[in-house]
Structure formats: structure tokens, C-alpha cells
Design brief:
The complex is a heterodimer of chains A (102) and B (240).
Chain A (H helix, E strand, L loop, with lengths): L2 H22 L3 H22 L10 H32 L11
Chain B lengths: L8 H22 L9 H6 L9 H9 L1 H19 L3 E2 L10 H24 L7 H18 L1 H6 L3 H23 L12 H25 L2 E2 L19
Parallel strand pairs in B: 1-2
Classes of the chains: A mainly alpha (102), B mainly alpha (240).
Chain lengths: 102, 240
């Protein structure tokens, strides 16, 4: 098993962990962090798989895609945080309402 | 804050589903073909006409310039989204800092400017470029925002809006300009490619830096801060 496959498997684990955090917690800040962890997992997979075995230079296309993705992730996070602040101002807590039947 | 402890049946099912998802993703990664799906050879074969020597920069700003144009647009849309949520009295957030913060600013700021300029320039040959430089400019801008009243009140005036839109504007301008010069959208004339990429990167880095500062503020700077007069020592004059 090469190192890049190991890092990719770590990336898919991060993705699943983030997905769990996104679904399991009602707090908006935790959901935003969870989405970022999912994104980090995807970036890790892309960067790791860009190094094929026996090649000394990485594939530039996935690296450029990760750079693009990072910027989009930063701007989406900023917008999400601004929306979460707005929810906090309006409702008094930055948290989704609990399900009554739970 | 009432997290249930212990394992309920639902959490066991969720855990199993997540394990299955991780396993499936892992299987998909391991079963990828080792060779053949890469675009590396096409990129390296066309480096001559990209105008730069770093493959990642060539992909970002020439071969896949379309992605980067949309990416800068996404940054701009995020600013529009944040601004639509309300305004903030930005000068209320600024406290002309203590001696430590001011000294830190004086030492760090020039170094950050030089680093940003270096990253911008080196992007043509090595890892670096507009986004890395823009991130450092954004950090410098936030430091300046926290310590300097004049910079903070400039956030509420019109030059800010020009700086915010300059990156998108110049990129779109170059994209359509290359159509006028006989190519297709974003197909730079071969001799001018290096120069055009450098121009786009310089303006985009400035725009990205300002965008990050604006996103850090988190709301639209209030119009009320626009006319605030600032005394020569940089301290804020008290408003009634």
C-alpha cells in the first residue's frame, strides 16, 4: 500500500467523521465545522492521489482544483458564519430547534 | 446540551452506515486505475504556450482559467451575501491597541507585504500565486483593521468597493478581450499570456485580500462611519 493510498483512506475517514458531525449536532457552529472537516477530507484525497507511484512531480490539475476548492470553502464558511450570527441575533441561540418526538 | 450517553439502536445503525460509507469510499480509492487517468502529460506538453513555468499556475490561470474566474466570482458572491444580512458600526470594533499590538503591527506588516509580493511574483515559476498572496494580504488587512482607525473607516468608503470588484472585473475584461483579439473566451494571445496572467494575478490578489478583510468584518460597514473625522494622531474623535 503506497503512502498516497494511505492518505486517501485517511481523507475518506475524515469525510465520514464530518458527515456524522453534520447530521448529529444541532449547533450551527458544529455543523459549519463538520462541513469544513468533510471538505478537508476531499482535499486530502485529491492532493494525495495527485502523486502517482514512481512519479517525481505531482499531477497539477488536482492541485489546482484543491486551490480553487479551498477558496470556495473559505467563502462558504464565511457566509455560513454570518448567517449563523444572524440566527443567533434573531432567535437567541445558534442552534436548530430540537425535534419534539425525539 | 442533553447528549444521550450510551448506545441507542439508532446510533449503532448510524455508526454502521458510516463505517460502510468509509469502506465504500476506501474501496473506490483503492480500485482506481494507477496510471492513465492523469492529465499531467497534456499539461506538461502545453507548458510552452501557457506563459508561465509553474504547472499549477498554468492550470489555474490559463488551461482552466474558467474555474478560477468562477472562483473569484464565488468570493464576490459571498461578500454580497454577507453584506445583505445587515450593517455594523465598524469603528466600534476597533480599539487602537496597546503597545504590544502596535509594535507587532509595525514589525509584521512590512514583512507581510514583502512576503505577499514575493508569493505573487514567484507563482510564475514555483508554488505561489494570487490566492496565497491574497491570503497574506487579508491577514495584514485584518491586523491593520484592528489597530488603525483610518484603515477601518476606509472600509466604509467607495474605494473599497472598487478594490472588491477589481479582481472579477479585470478577469472578465481579459476573458472577453481575448475574444475580441480573435481567440475564444479566456484564450489569451500566446505572446501576451505571461503578461496577462501577471496583471490578473496582481489585481486578483488585492481583491482577494480585501474580500477576506470584508468577510472578517462579517457585515456591511455602516454608512455612518464614512464621514468620521480622524485626528492626526490616528485616534478616533468621539462621536456624539
Amino acid at each position: 500500500m503506497s503512502v498516497s493510498v494511505l492518505y486517501s483512506l485517511l481523507g475518506s475517514t475524515l469525510f465520514s467523521l464530518g458527515l456524522y458531525g453534520l447530521a448529529a449536532y444541532a449547533q450551527l457552529l458544529r455543523k459549519i465545522l463538520a462541513i469544513n472537516i468533510m471538505g478537508s477530507g476531499v482535499f486530502l484525497i485529491l492532493v494525495a492521489l495527485a502523486y502517482g507511484p514512481g512519479e517525481n512531480s505531482p499531477d497539477p490539475v488536482p492541485h489546482a482544483m484543491v486551490l480553487t476548492g479551498l477558496v470556495v470553502a473559505v467563502s462558504a464558511t464565511a457566509l455560513a458564519l454570518a448567517l449563523a450570527c444572524r440566527v443567533q441575533e434573531t432567535t437567541g441561540s445558534a442552534q436548530l430547534p430540537e425535534d419534539e418526538s425525539d | 446540551m442533553h447528549q444521550k450517553s450510551g448506545f441507542s439502536p439508532a446510533s449503532v445503525i448510524i455508526l454502521l452506515l458510516l463505517l460502510a460509507l468509509t469502506g465504500f469510499l476506501g474501496w473506490a480509492i483503492v480500485s482506481l486505475p494507477i496510471q492513465g487517468a492523469s492529465l499531467r502529460t497534456q499539461v506538461l506538453a502545453n507548458m510552452e504556450q501557457s506563459g508561465v513555468k509553474n504547472p499549477v499556475t498554468a492550470v489555474l490561470l490559463n488551461f482552466r482559467g474558467y474555474d478560477t474566474l468562477l472562483e473569484i466570482t464565488v468570493l464576490f458572491l459571498a461578500v454580497l451575501g454577507v453584506w445583505s444580512l445587515g450593517t455594523v458600526q465598524i469603528l466600534d470594533k476597533v480599539q487602537p491597541g496597546g503597545p504590544f499590538l502596535m509594535a507587532l503591527m509595525r514589525i509584521l506588516l512590512p514583512a507581510m507585504m514583502v512576503t505577499a509580493g514575493y508569493l505573487l511574483w514567484v507563482g510564475a515559476y514555483a508554488p505561489g500565486g494570487a490566492f496565497q498572496a491574497g491570503a497574506i494580504l487579508g491577514g495584514a488587512g485584518i491586523l491593520l483593521l484592528l489597530t488603525d482607525v483610518r484603515f477601518a473607516s476606509a472600509m466604509a468608503r467607495w474605494p473599497l468597493r472598487i478594490a472588491l470588484t477589481a479582481g472579477v472585473s479585470i478577469f472578465i475584461g481579459v476573458a472577453f478581450g481575448s475574444m475580441i483579439l480573435g481567440g475564444r473566451l479566456l484564450e489569451y494571445p500566446r505572446d501576451l499570456a505571461g503578461t496577462l496572467i501577471l496583471v490578473i494575478e496582481c489585481v486578483a490578489a488585492l481583491s482577494i485580500g480585501i474580500t477576506l478583510v470584508v468577510l472578517y468584518i462579517g457585515s456591511r460597514p455602516s454608512e455612518a462611519d464614512r464621514g468620521v473625522s480622524v485626528k492626526s494622531n490616528g485616534k478616533r474623535k468621539e462621536r456624539p
